[in-house]
Amino acid sequence: MAAGGAAALAALVIYTVFMRWVVGQTPNWAEELPRLVLIWTALLGSITCTHRRSHLNAGLLPLIVRSADVRRTIGKVTDFVLLVMLLMLAKAGWDLTLVTMSMTTTALKMPVGFIYLSVPVGCVGMALMQLQHLLSSGDTP
């Protein structure tokens, strides 16, 4: 999904640059549509990163804490805190989506709330992945 969004974003930007510099006519959606694709791609891609635990981290815990049991406990606490924070962010994103659904974007004439909808969708997806990590019996990195 994220790769498709990145490819679509690249195609949109290439098309926009071509239209602007070769044809001399910039599409009216040149600013809004790539931004929309970027936001949705980033938040949907973050679900996969959360599932794979591939978000950037410092990796210092194994250097500081030698005990595997303590590291596992810290990992579970971290998973729980992240789950709570993602649910809070999803709620805030949903509230913002509802407030902005009656507004429309300038060029695309679509509800602004559709852009903000990416926040609760992405956060709920990441929260489900965090819940899976929290409930799994395997080691947490």
Brief write-up:
By secondary structure, the chain is mainly α.
Report on the structure:
One of its GO terms (molecular function) is transmembrane transporter activity. InterPro entries: DctQ, TRAP_DctQ. Keywords: Cell inner membrane, Cell membrane, Membrane, Transmembrane, Transmembrane helix, Transport. Pfam families: DctQ. Belongs to the TRAP transporter small permease family. By secondary structure, this protein is mainly alpha-helical. The chain has one domain (2-135). 73% of the residues lie in helices and 0% in strands. The protein has six helices and no strands. It has helices spanning 2-23, 32-52, 61-64, 68-100, 112-116, 118-135. Helix 1 packs antiparallel against helix 2. The protein is elongated and about 65 Å long. The chain starts with a helix and ends in a 6-residue tail after the last helix.
Which key terms come to mind for this protein?
141 residues, mainly alpha, 6 helices, 0% strand, elongated, transmembrane helix, cell inner membrane, cell membrane, TRAP_DctQ, membrane
